[in-house]
User: Fold this.
Amino acid sequence: MKFGFFDDSKKEYVITTPRTPLPWINYLGCNEFFSIISNTCGGYSFYKDAKLLRLTRYRYNDVPGDVNGKYFFIKDGDTVWNPGWQPTKTELDSYECRHGIGYSRFTSSKNDVQAQVLTFVPLGDNCEISSLKLTNNSSSAKTLSLFSYVEWCLWNADDDMKNFQRNLSIGEVEVIGSTIYHKTEYRERRNHYAVYSVNSKIDGFDTSRDDFLGAYRGADAPLAVENGACTGSIASGWSPIAAHQLNLSLQPGETKSFIFVLGYLENLQGEKWESSGIINKRPADEMLAKYQTDEDVEKAFARLNNYWDGLLSKYTVRSSNDKVDRMVNIWNQYQCMVTFNMSRSASYYESGIGRGMGFRDSCQDLLGFVHLIPDRARERIIDIASTQFQDGSAYHQYQPLTKKGNSDIGSGFNDDPLWLIAGTSAYVRETGDVSILTEMVPFDNDASVAAPLMEHLRRSLDYVITHKGPHKLPLIGRADWNDCLNLNCFSEHPGESFQTFGPSEGPVAESVFIAGMFVKYGEEYAQLCELMGMPTEAERARKEAELMNEAIIKDGWDGEWFIRAYDAYSNKIGSKECEEGKIFIEPQGFCSLAGVGVEEGLAKKALDSVKEKLDTEYGVMILQPAYTKYHLELGEVSSYPPGYKENAGIFCHNNPWVSIAETVIGRGDRAFEIYQKTCPAYVEEISEIHRTEPYVYAQMVAGRDAKFHGEAKNSWLTGTAAWTFVNISQYILGLYPTHTGLSINPCVPKNFGDFELTRQFREGNYTIKVQNPDNAEKGIKQIYVDGSPINGCVIPYVKGKTFYDVTVVMG
Ligand code: BGC
Ligand code: IFM
Assistant:
């Protein structure tokens, strides 16, 4: 069952009922100011950091769900309704929500009044614009009142939820004309404030929640709206809000338009600070002056659309499969940009106060967006590397505002260092910018101990080399990619995540997954060394990768598949010898895609085992059989009920690893089958089962053992976005950036047909026609560049050349 449809011509998903199985959200904002908006206008806004600088409040765990947002109430006689249906839930005569690329548009009607709301964050300003148009479609004049409503958050969202003894006394606001200023903490010289303004003269306002909503009422039935009159309240402490009232009359057929702006402001450097607590409104005046007319809004909206059209034209495909085209050209790349901006911080499943930017997460996200915004990828790499410790290990997370490592979580996830090599290699292959490797980067943000980025990468590699266990496989530490595989945690605090090492046995658990990563990224590091004129170091890295390869084949192979790990007692994890958790997906995918056991036929066996043991109609499960009991020696993985999350859920993030591995051994049909199973455009048809947004990936789909097999959770912020884009764009469709040029080597299903790609790679624009006369899954007969045949499948990069006309014949 579907709850809407894709409108590819507009790059929108059109939701046709507000009663989606779960709130279906979108992200507004590209740089520093962001909003989350659901299909019923729920959500909140923040500047840079959803924890530390949050503008509007959100309520988690609330019933009914998704009840705080930026709302417009329309009072038409006794009927009060909202264009997004919530919070009054007045039945609408028509409803439509279009989530587009960086904007959302609502069109609804009730009793012959139509409301159109377009919401977006313009480029270059820290604000959200909502353009609201009301039209009278009846044959008689209408007198209406329009009310806006946002609830301010006391900036630090964590504190806002906990520190009531203080917070209920600090709220301060001011109203000047049609602008409501939220200036809580301004007196503390915090230098920031927020505004909510409308471009018309208002007929009333409220800034105290209690006065606007009324005692013991919620936003579903605000008293002021019911009475048709705001009270003019000025909040002092308690819960400040911003509500405007606009009375209007509309002749038949008439439309009136209003522009609301919610903005974040900082005092300009050197600006006189008015110590009386009256805010310095100049920065706000300047910003608001830019968005006063419909033309202003149209221009800003056009700029935003052009920006996105430019980004999304960097990689395009035209094939006979409209679902692939839709995901590649629009939604998968869009989700990659959102994960770039958010990492794992703020969604409807990540509270915005728990996790900030993940070291491994953001490094992997880079793989999906580096071609879109290479300059910002560069900055991101430096930010991430700056949280690395001198021994090569790293803070697992850092806060986006401060860019400082999070010491509550700390370090000790032994895969983290290698992801820095993955991200940097992707950046250098994409851009050819080797200057990043000589950039001085601090350790732990301490400028007095800085080293070139290349040295950071060396320490990443050496961290793994110097932390190996009894089988010469990498020590896992607190966990590797699988956060829940806590093999060095013993009995003391069962159920806790990220437990510390046990006392006597020592941290000896080993990870075959990290070993696979080492083989792949050891080679990528070696290539960077060669670029830097360090052949001896390249040779050393390759030797180490070879040793690791041998260790995997010797002690990481179980006969039919790769084992997952050795626990702290040197017992195998993910082996046929285990009672439960006999096979895990991660090493099958990662070792095989790294090339381990490909020549020996082990990779093929491992991937066949994946198909036999882990496959379901909704995707490939992370492990089988699910753990039915809690195992102290395994940690959090077995704390989940069977079929959920890391305990035998379909962890979408690692499905592309298996699909990529299938392309490495040339099985296009199977690679595509795996791609298809979790792909939103395909899953749209079963939205009543899948339940999360049908235009983006979710982190997890419940596995076969779960009660609700096929149900997704944790949508949007997942490494799945980057890895599926890498899979489809670089391996299935086959355009892989190398240091010497663009490699073309597709691996497609036999019936995929011919297809065309365009790619912007460095300063070159490539148009690529792929012909597949023999319906081959993989293999290149010949590539022609500007009409001339080339050897092999890498189109050599030519400095300054801007156009490449390429024909590829598979076979
Ligand atoms: C996992 C969760 C786990 C958490 C903390 C996450 O990365 O996906 O399942 O609960 O880490 O251990
Ligand atoms: O690898 C992790 C990631 O860092 C956060 N989400 C879950 C993944 C698997 O545990």
Notes: The longest helix spans residues 322-342. The CA atoms of residues 505 and 568 lie 7 Å apart. The chain is about 30% helix and 25% strand.
